Each structure stands twice: as structure tokens, then as C-alpha cells.
Amino acid sequence: MKFSGNKLVNASRQALISMTLCVFASVSFAGLFDDEEARRAILDLREKVERIRTDAEQVSIRASEENATLRRSLLDLQSQIEILRSESAKQRGDSEQLARDLSEIQRRQKDIAQSVDERFRRFEPVKVNVDGREFLAEQAEKKDFEIALAVFRKGDFVTVQNLFLDFIRRNPESGYATSALFWLANAQYATRDYPEAMINFSSLVKKVPDHLRAPEAELSVANCQLELKDLRGAKLTLENLLKTYPQSEAASVAKERLLKFK
Fold first, then answer.
1. What is the pLDDT of residues 49-95, one digit of tens each?
2. Are 176 and 146 in contact (CB under 8 A)?
3. CA angle 221, 222, 224 (to 5 degrees)
4. CB atoms within 10 A of CB 67
5. In the chain, how many H helices and how many E strands?
6. Could you give the count of Cα atoms lying within 13 Å of 149 in the half-sphere of its Cβ?
7. 176, 141 in Cβ contact below 8 A?
8. What region, left, alpha or beta, does residue 85 occupy, with left being phi > 0 and alpha being psi -120 to 50 degrees?
């Protein structure tokens, strides 16, 4: 638009120069016409020149206005482009921040999930094998039994009785219950509480006759009877041990004990 307006101005200037030359040419021939006609011709030429000048000025004004409008449009466009660039950069920054936030949230979720899994695993039953028997036990239950057994091995037979009694009371159906009963009876025997020891040894044999500790418990019943001077009862117990568990190590001991009765 700016180039087109300049062309119009130049064309107008060239027309004005041409008209001026025509005026001078007309004057040179003025002698051929009378003065009145010459004056009219000059006036007409002046009017034409004035119209051309006026038109040229208007074209120039319009061209300037169009150029100004175009410049404003370009400035507005540049401003809009900068705004769009700024918004795009902000959105890109926001997107990158959101991506970082999402990554952090996912990392935290993973950490929380792992922590929850670890906590649940602490309460999940575990497979254990005690005295030849495999079963599932709660981790707290397993821990309590192992603590009580460790106290027994230290020789604190008074304290361990309370631990095993409490364990059996809280876990009557536990896979550890029979073994806990066996070690409770042994602790009672160690403190010379023979009546209670004999009751618990006998209870083990009666409840779980095929238990790995049953032959040993039966022999311990006979030992309690001997300590209580129940020789007849001890003999019957030893004979029953030989009959029920003939291949056990406890049966070999019972056989030797029975020889002393003869």
C-alpha cells in the first residue's frame, strides 16, 4: 500500500510539470489569439493544475493514512504475536511443571504403596516348620513363641512358664500350641512342679498322639511319676510307651528303665 501511494504522488507531480510546460507553450502562442482567449486558457490550465495538485495531496494523505493504518496493524500483530509467544512459553512451562509434579506424585505413590506392602507383610501369615509340622502362623505369634523358647534355653524356667501359659491362652488353635505345651511342661518339671508337668505332658500325648514330641512326653510322664514315687504308674507308662512308640529313642530309654523294675 505504501509503494502504491508513492507512485500516485509521483504521477501527479509529473502531470503538474507537464501542465506547467503546456502553460509556457501556450503563452508563446498567445500572440496568435486575442488576449481574452489566452486568459481563459491560462485560467483553465491553472484550474486543472490546482485540481491535479489537490488530487495528488488527497492521494498522498490517503496513502499516509493507509500507511499509518498498516503500521498500526503491524504493531498490533507483533503485539499479539508476542502475547501468543508469552502465553505459549507459560503454557510450556506449566506443562513441564505439571509433568514434574505428576512424576513426583507417582514417585510418592510408589513409595507409599511399598510402605503399605511392607506393613501388610508384617501381618501376613508365614510358613513355619516346628517339631516336624508345617503350618501358617501370624508373625506376632511366631515372634512370641521364639521369645519364650529363647528364655527357656537361658534356663529361666520360672519366667518361661508364664510366657508359655500366656501364649497358649491367646493362641489355643495355633500350630505352635502343642510345642508350647511341651516346653511349658519341661519348665514345670525343671522347677519340680511334677503334678502340673505330668498333666501337660499327658495332655500333649492325648491331644496329638502322632506328634514328634509325643514319645518324649510319654517318657516325661513316667519320670514325673517316679519323682512322685508312683512306681506302679511309672511302670505302666513305660510299658505303654514301648507298645505305642517302639521305634522311638524314648522307647529305648523306657526299655532300660523297665529293667530296673525287675
1. 788 888 778 877 887 888 788 788 878 888 888 888 888 788 888 88
2. no
3. 65
4. 15
5. 9, 2
6. 13
7. yes
8. alpha
Distances (CA, A) of 50 to 30, 36, 209: 22, 21, 137
Smallest Cα–Cα separation from 148: which of 126, 181, 173, 123?
Answer: 181
Amino acid at 8: L
CA angle 216, 219, 223 (to 5 degrees): 130
Alpha-carbon 70 to chain mean position: 57
How far apart, in whole angstroms, are the C-alpha atoms of residue 173 and residue 169? Answer: 10
Tell me: pLDDT of 105 over 60.
Answer: yes
Q: Which of 75, 64, 73 is nearest to 1 (CA)?
A: 64
